[in-house]
Write a structure and sequence with these properties.
By secondary structure, the chain is mainly alpha-helical. The chain has helices at residues 2-11, 15-58, 63-112, 124-151, 154-176, 182-191, 193-207, 216-232, 240-244.
């Protein structure tokens, strides 16, 4: 696993990967800015008009709870774009990764596995669906953990573990689906859940580093291409029958 992570890191700025890296960083910056501003405006609305609207909807018995929630939200809104950028980064990288999965995987396979049959490019709609699904699930988990961050600090650990599980799951399945039908890829991920979660910890650590985390889609995808190769076995014929079924 350490060898796979080292190989993925070494390829980040290699000439074949450089163009993909700059395109993914540019797209990530645009998405982060747009979504962070939108989140900040939504939080600002809830901290003012939203509290009154919800109290009218739920009844006066919720007044105290909504006041506390509005206070939490007002703090989040005050952090503005910075908060939004940090909060949304794992979700953004999931979406960006789905757009560059085949570009990254092709480079890794050509450089490190030239004697093996290359993977089959994922249909665009399928890749986007996987990316959006993971991004939305990540945001939901983070929203659920947000009160724990502000009151107990335990939410940071939840954030990290959730990112490890969600990102490890998505990147591995994207790598595996280049060689296997979706259901087989998901089954393989379940059969190796502990290993893939541990690998996801590497990606979660990477996405936690400011600025560097813009390269998460490249690192995560390259890393999981190596992990899929290792879990598939040393012989390419082990995965060829599944590839022919597609």
């Amino acid at each position: 696993m350490l060898d796979a992570a080292a190989k993925a890191l070494s390829q980040l700025i290699s000439p074949p990967m450089r163009s993909i890296l700059w395109r993914s960083i540019g797209l990530a910056l645009v998405l982060i800015t747009v979504l962070a501003i939108g989140l900040q405006r939504l939080l600002s609305w809830f901290a003012t008009s939203g509290e009154v609207w919800l109290e009218g909807l739920l009844g006066p018995g919720w007044h105290s709870s909504l006041e506390v929630l509005a206070w939490i939200v007002s703090i989040a809104a005050g952090l503005g774009v910075v908060f939004g950028g940090v909060f949304l980064m794992p979700a953004i990288t999931s979406l960006v990764a789905s757009l560059f999965v085949d570009d990254v995987a092709d480079v890794v396979e050509r450089e490190h596995y030239p004697a093996e049959r290359p993977g089959v490019a994922l249909p665009f709609n399928q890749a986007i669906f996987e990316g959006i699904k993971t991004a939305l699930l990540t945001i939901l988990v983070y929203l659920a953990a947000l009160p724990l961050v502000l009151f107990a600090g335990a939410g940071f650990l939840i954030f990290f573990l959730a990112a490890a599980w969600l990102l490890g799951r998505e990147y591995f399945e994207l790598a595996a689906m280049r060689f296997r039908p979706p259901e087989q890829a998901k089954a393989m991920r379940r059969d190796n859940a502990a290993t893939i979660f541990t690998a996801g910890l590497f990606i979660a650590a990477f996405v936690s580093i400011p600025v560097v985390n813009l390269a998460t889609p490249i690192f995560g995808m390259a890393f999981m291409v190596h992990m899929h190769k290792r879990l598939s076995g040393p012989r390419p014929e082990l995965i060829e029958p599944a590839r022919q079924m597609r």
